Amino acid sequence: MMLPESRQLDFDEIPVIDISGLLDEADARGTVRAIDRACRDIGFFYIVGHGFDMSLATRLREAASEFFNLPETARRSLGLDPSMRGFLPLFYHSQISDSFSGTSHQEGFWIGADFGSDVRHPLEQANRWPQHPERLRPIMLEYLEAIESLAAVLGQSFANALGQDDQFYTSHFTRPTSRLKLNHYPPQDNPERIDSIGVVPHSDSGAFTILWQDANGGLEVRTKSREWVGAPPLEDSFVVNIGDILQYWSNGRYSSTKHRVINRYGVDRYSIPYFVNPSADVVISALDGSESFAPFNYGDYQLAKWRDFFPVENPAASS
């Protein structure tokens, strides 16, 4: 029996926020309040007025299509390493929780910040690049630089909303373990089980995510009433969602909302998420000073999460 289609959301469920006030400080406080409200209510929102050159996303999506159309042997030679860089193959299996695991009909390619020879943690290894298409590397690095600038603006807005000073983002993301990922979802006409779809239901393990999605749709978000609703593409926007670390930092004030992808539309779907993650040496504790959970090291936590979620090669190398 095919999974029923989810209804499309109303934009009062996942708000659209113009963040131009953060960029020119014309209405920074009002924008921070709107972001804070969205984080408390749903944990997802669209952003417009972000100043990002969207032609970068178009060019990167074209290069991604070329990469994912390479022979499988060429892609698999870049198998995902323990620092989460390289190629993620189709139909990977993830252990989401003790009671739920699933197979995702998605393939991906990951990179992060390159620290050269100054590697201080297993998450700081070098990127791995394909020989073809040649244009993938320069476009992806250009996109990474631009999206990190946007992440810094958004990251500090979350910090301000939680009563932190203006140095919070720079001090906690000095050597970010953030990852830029290219996603490809082949069409799946008749999905029958929730544990075998484009991406199985999950929450993101880092601080927050900035997602560009193509015009085909497929992203679905679970509301607080536990209903799945479609989050359709909106031209010239990004979707931003809260990850587990911001839920920890906010002591539960912000929601790390479960989401999934089902590509029912008969065409290939592409998306470009940027997972914004703190430095590996950051200790995570509630910012309000409460002791509702024991503080933990971010780098160790993230390594363990990725080992459960993704089929990395030689996981012992990250110990």
Explain this structure.
The protein has 319 residues and is an alpha+beta fold. The protein has a single domain, classed as Jelly Rolls, CATH 2.60.120.330. It is 28% helix and 23% strand. It is built from 8 helices and 18 strands. The strands form 4 sheets. It has an 8-stranded mixed beta sheet. A 5-stranded mixed beta sheet has the order 1-13-12-15-10, with no helix packed on it. A 3-stranded mixed beta sheet has the order 5-6-9, with no helix packed on it. Helix 2 packs across helix 5 and helix 3 packs across helix 5. The radius of gyration is 19 Å and the shape is globular.
Question: What's the short version?
Answer:
With about 325 residues, this protein is an alpha+beta fold. It has helices at about 20-25, 30-40, 55-70, 70-75, 135-160, 170, 245-250, 300-310, and strands at about 5-10, 15-20, 45-50, 85-90, 90-95, 100-105, 105-110, 180-185, 195, 200, 210-215, 220, 230, 240, 260, 270-275, 285, 295.
